[in-house]
Every structure is written in structure tokens, then in C-alpha cells.
Amino acid sequence: MKIIIPVLVTITLFSCTSSNNFHKEKALFESSPVLRSFRSVADMNDSYFVIMDNNFFEFYRVLFDSVKNTRYPGRYHKNGDTLVLQFYNRKGYELLGKKMLVDDNSNQVTFFK
Predict the structure, then answer these.
(1) Is 98:90 a contact under the CB 8 Å cutoff?
(2) Are the CB atoms for 71 and 58 separated by under 8 Å?
């Protein structure tokens, strides 16, 4: 029991830290213009990845072309032709990975874990 409580406190602090960072940067995020947008079409959920100014990005899914049902914002930095992604929510890493390659010729993106 002595070990469980510190572990739970640590997990809670780390999970709140990433969302608190987004709340601090939310105004800058919302005012950043879109630089590029990519879309993946599926039967019920379309997925969007938006690259914005000020090194922000957002990955989200839209249910039936109307309701945004998941949203994973973050920041990125460029390393050559690769974008290194830093999600505010760790679930974004599970869905997409930590790196993204943009192919300008075919206007497609590839994600890497």
C-alpha cells in the first residue's frame, strides 16, 4: 500500500502536466493559421492531421462528417524532412507515433513509432 500511493500521485501529476501545458498555450494554438492539412477517409471516421504555424499541429477524427469526436493537439519541431511530434495527450503517440514524414510530391504523410 505504501508503494501504490506514491505511484498513483506520480501518474496523476504527469498526466495533468501535459494537459496543463496545452491550457497555457491554447490561445496561441487557436490563433495559429493552418499551413497544411491532410485527410484520411474511412467509412464512419475521417481522420485529419493539421500542421499549423508556431510549430503546432492537431490530429482529430470526425464522425459522419460532422462531429469532432477525438482531438490530439501538440507541438512539433523539424529534423530534416521529418517532423518530430510532441503530443499533449500520450494517447496520440499510440495512434500515430513520434515522427512524421511529409512527401511533398505526393502530398502524403507517413507516421513512425
Answers:
(1) no
(2) yes
